[in-house]
Design goal:
The protein is an alpha+beta fold. The protein has one domain: Glutaredoxin. Helices cover 51% and strands 10% of the residues. The chain is built from twelve helices and four strands. A four-stranded mixed sheet has the order 2-1-3-4, with helices on both faces. It is globular and about 65 Å long. The chain binds glutathione. The site of glutathione has 12 residues, from helix 1. Belongs to the GST superfamily. Kappa family. Keywords: Transferase. It catalyses: RX + glutathione = an S-substituted glutathione + a halide anion + H(+). One of its GO terms (biological process) is glutathione metabolic process. Its EC number is 2.5.1.18.
Amino acid sequence: MGGRIDCYVDIASFYSYIIFLDLLRNRDLLKAHSITVEFHPFLLGAVNAGSGNKPPWTLPAKATYGLHDAKRTIARFPNLPIQFPADLMSVALTVLPLRALHFIKRTYPDPEVFITTLHYFFHAFWAPPNVNLTRAENVKMVLEQVPAGFKGAGDAGEEKLFSKDEVEAILKGAGSQEMKDLLKGTTQKALDQGAFGAPWLWVTNEGGKSEPFFGSDRFHFVYQFLGLPFQNVALLPPANQSKL
Ligand SMILES: N[C@@H](CCC(=O)N[C@@H](CS)C(=O)NCC(=O)O)C(=O)O
């Protein structure tokens, strides 16, 4: 068994946060099945523009339905502090932190540094008080705060992942043409694969065949495609009949 999941995420995408948490939760099992997982920061706004899509909540019926799905999804993570930003549109252009993530991914040999920072950016954006990551000073503040080995909300960790000098270097790197091109190129790659939203998955199975998957709720199809054993939704008989 083997394969890979290339997962395209934007910090400003709630369901990107969800798939990130699910993949993190299952990382040992995925590893045991020889599945490599790689996260790729991309810009959802540019994916929408490039594919001709619009954020789902801009259509009133989808906005109303979306509240139900969001509530159900949040209920899957009882200890996760989640608060939707009051005006998501106005804080959705997370270009700078996405470029910073590319810089970190490229610069630090330990992949945990990138994963931890991505995790903390998601947390900062989606937990109250919803840090506005479109502002450079906030990105700096959040980078300075990332606890080393951040494991999720409530983990304030005394030791910080980055020194002040490292944060300066990350912000400088994030402003480089190379990182601008890298974020653009990553977004374009997903668009070329057919992306129209986030999270976007490009999954490659043992035989080298690749297929796209959209959303954080497609794991049954992903696992099936990868040939992994998994437990699907199984309807059981009514409780009183099971005793017959
Ligand atoms: N059912 C999917 C919904 C994912 C979703 O709504 N993603 C948003 C961004 S957070 C999006 O890009 N949607 C585009 C679309 O629905 O056309 C899931 O549970 O993950």
